[in-house]
Amino acid sequence: MSSDTDGTRVEQLATVRDRVPLRVYIISTVILLERAAFFGCTTTFQNYLQNGHDDPLRPGLLGLGQSTAVAIIYAFSFLNYVTPLLGGIVADTWIGRYRAIQLGLLCDTLGIAILATTAFTQHFHHVGGLAGYIVAICLIAFGAGGAKPNLMAFMIDQCPEQDAREIYLKDGKRVLTDRGLTVQFIYNMNYWMINLGSLAGILTTLTEKVKGFGYAYLIPLGFMVVALAVFHLETSRYVLPMPTQNILPVVFRLIIRRSRGRSGPAAEQSNSSVLESDRASPTPTLTNDDAILAKQVKTAIKSCLIFTPFIPLYFSIDLMSNNLISQAGTMSTHGLPNDIMFNVNAISVMILLPLIQGLLYPVLAKHSIPFPPTYRVVTGLFFAALAIAYTTGVQALIYENSPCGRFALSCGARESGLSIWLQTPTYVLLALAEILAIVSGTELAYTRAPEGMKSIVQAVFILFGAGGAILGVASSPAARDPYMVVVYAVISGVMGVTTAVFCLENGREEGVELGVVEAVGVGSVGRGGNGRPAEILSGTAEGRAELGTVNGKNGGVDVVELKTNE
């Protein structure tokens, strides 16, 4: 601590992430294996459904056609986005996250086993393929609903909230641990692991082409068996938050009253009466202070509203698992399966995420350039719009160069002559959209959620993807030649409008609500040990504290200058 000549006391405060327990890495490994199994299956679904067993150019089995296949896959996506809400509610209010994850993993394993079995029966005996697929995707969707929203929250549970601790780095420098930085590191590590797991699609798509779909689905089945075993390695050491009492009746009543447009003191009194009535009900409310509960519910609702732009974003990202695969089928694949390009997205995320986390954010922090979560979401939305705009141009080129013109998919073994690698910018731009928007949205879902509702809010964030799936199902009749240029152009336009509206609506609010602390690049410098804005942003008339400038990085440490005017 030193003193300036103007009487301002300056303290150099460095913050670093805390040590991450081994059990966090074990849960991260489970996420890796579960996502590897999921993407290993879903990457093959478009070919499995669309193409027939006798297709000379593309692997397939059921031969349902592009539009039907797209509709079924979007329906599956819808289930995957809806079931996490059920999983979050069950975990938070009844059985706890640990049991919910166990049930989810078991359900996943059973679904993939059925998928593999019926793929064999369809291949060799021409029976059971479609019925088995429907049963399997329902089980997989409910399994993901139990595991997906709870694994991430359960991982953060393993790092309990605590006050910042003074520690010494190897060079002897004294620093403070920051749970906000720890949580952000875990989120980024988790997203990197998810994309590493998605590379399992390379194994399954190559196996599908060479050996068939039944053998391909044995690979994700093996991943799930290993995931179940790994999850139980640290059972005795897990931090197991107890499920809370059921607060959903209170939530629903407050939502109804809010939707009726009641606000102000009268509404507050009404909300209090709701809470009083629930206190006398057989199922008591969650918190000791009912007024706090009402505010928590309102906070949760407000937190969920910021997820609205993720509806068209998820719609755009889901194109990678259906229409973009069909588009690749009209291009020169150079001997590769047409559904292997999905993995370019995962590889791009794995390369770009460390660069953005380790280079871009520190540079922005060093120059005090604001880049808080909502700014990152806006940037991600823009990249998604740009990706689909580029895809529109590629589709126009395909129609121009295809021997069948605007009916490229009906050409059989004749291709457009365009290389499949022309799709690469689409997958890279969508990777940037995911890194900036999806990761930030997940972070907002956890950090803004009240205690006792974190799995639920996390699930609501995922639920907004169901809106994207509904858009996909609604647009599936048009998802065929000769309309694909128009389809992509409309999606790109919707993404552009969404980006502009979200930017205008949230730009000013972000600067006021999150302040300079969030704006130093990583969204957690200057945060206290509990992840909330540190006390250095508050003060009195006698001694008002304000956040100074970010002096830069010192071995990966954010150095914050704290000024106190006396």
UniProtKB/TrEMBL annotation:
Record bears the keyword Ribonucleoprotein: no
Domain of life: Eukaryota
Family classification: Belongs to the major facilitator superfamily. Proton-dependent oligopeptide transporter (POT/PTR) (TC 2.A.17) family.
Transmembrane found in the keyword field: yes
Membrane topology reported for the UniProt record: Multi-pass membrane protein
Organism placement in taxonomy: Eukaryota, Fungi, Dikarya, Ascomycota, Pezizomycotina
MF terms in GO: transmembrane transporter activity
Protein name per UniProt: Oligopeptide transporter
GO cellular component term, pick one: membrane
Record's keyword terms, sorted: Membrane, Transmembrane, Transmembrane helix
Region listing for Disordered, in residue ranges: 263-283
Compartments (UniProt record): Membrane
Transmembrane stretches, start-end: 24-49, 69-91, 103-124, 130-147, 189-207, 213-233, 300-320, 340-365, 377-399, 427-447, 459-479, 485-504
Main location: membrane
Polar residues composition bias: residue spans: 268-283
